[in-house]
Specification:
alpha/beta, eight-stranded mixed sheet
Amino acid sequence: MRRLLKVLLVVLVGLLGYGVGLAQPHVLRPPLVPGQDAAGDPAGARAVVSLDDVGGRVLSVRPEADADILFVLYPGGLVRPQAYEWLGRALAGRGVHTVIPEFPVDLAVLDAGRAQRLVDHYAAGRPVVVGGHSLGGAMAAAWASDHPDALAGLVLLAAYPPDGDDLTAAGFPAVVLQAEHDLVADGDAVRGGLDRLPAGTDLVVVEGAVHSFFGRYGPQAGDGIPTVSRAEAEASIVAALTDFLGRVA
């Protein structure tokens, strides 16, 4: 009997250790350090990057001069904010102030209403666009559905509105970027989400790209195989967003 109890105890401890090992990467998130996942400013961007506290930490990437528009960007699920710093730096050279909030365990679903605090703090009367990548995009769309009068636009990166969130009557424009070889965000669901977005919403396919090319966080399990370089995909992403944000501003 004692031998059996010892065996059961060893098994229990092993299972507990395995569970802790699985949970550790999700509970103990990597540090939020500006500059580590962005290789400097694109030519002429001259971004000012700071880590602010606005009801929680926020990575702020703004132009040296006054910005024309505020872009609130929700990260993808379990992705750190600095993975999108590269995009903020690129857009800073185009007059866009990008703010990327940190969420509890990097899940926007745990504080989907965070955008309101950021708009109140940063907008200063400028047009506001909200958006996000993957799960972050879905949560941004859900917030936009509840606050249509607060927005000038919506950006969804490999994302679509949750079921039940109908933005077809919203007065702001929207754009959806879909990576050609994305195997994480279901392509049919992304395209189907257009039926719940404002009329005239643009769908831009980023040729050769995969799901993880929207953020600099490395390869993602289950994703497709890219047929272009990350630099080429990023250039296409920036071009599409520059066009959309320019029209909004």
